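User: Structure with S-adenosylmethionine, tokens only please.
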Amino acid sequence: MTLESPALYVVPTPLGNLADLTRRAEEVLRAVPWVAAEDTRHSGPLLKQLGSSARLLPAHQHNEHEAAARIVERLQAGDSVALVSDAGTPGISDPGARVVAAVRAAGGRVVPLPGPCAATTALSASGLGDEHFLFYGFLPSKGGQRRQALEALREHPYALVFYEAPHRVLETVADLAAVFGGERTLVVARELTKLFETVHSLPLAEAGAWLQADANRQRGEFVLIVSGAPEGVDDGEGERVLKLLLDDGLPVKQAAKLAAAITGAAKNALYQRALALKS
Ligand code: SAM
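Assistant:
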């Protein structure tokens, strides 16, 4: 690959399965003279494996300002730089935003590469019918602040996407159920692209017991997705119309959408109900 004018390439790396590195990412990591990495010890072996002779620059949470200045200098000297984080897409609950902003502010070119991201990977397998989602990332680690953050999201109609660490997953799921109520759907996406990958969907009321039923279910890396807040209350009319539409042969998603529009009942709840009726 020949690099054109000097640029900062934002390069996503695999979440676990090395085969998920895109061909373009591989080409960029081989062609650039510099790779700015969240953890050089982590990214060094990847570069070695690719046969890349790029030199590493540390660019982590605690030196991002300084790293940004060094990267801008490299670009101004005519060298391209690739930016990587430990896993997934830089700048998504990972360092990167400051570096990108500094390069842009200095008039530099930023080239984003599409690639692995835990949030979109989990969403693609969630099966939730929500048309929109809100990416939240990590909730506060302290219980009181976490519940306060969740209260602010309680009525939000979009599916909510959270990142969580294994040692906090039980308490976070308990808070999700306490604040959002037990009926909303939770999707637990664990160890994506790895050996013990699990994507499990269940009502929030059952989630704590499910996680506790097997200690392995609390291990690894987690994306938690909660279906959006119901838009309206169904007095039975929503389900009646839904059944009519399904009997008429409409697909599940369309039937739920129409039944919600006609009756004002919650589209999400109708979608889940339609899935249950179909199975
Ligand atoms: N930049 C990354 C991305 O694009 O997804 C996210 C980095 S953030 C520091 C790490 C968090 O992402 C983990 O705590 C977990 O919530 C989520 N994550 C990363 N890899 C994952 C995987 N293989 N399975 C499930 N969640 C994962």
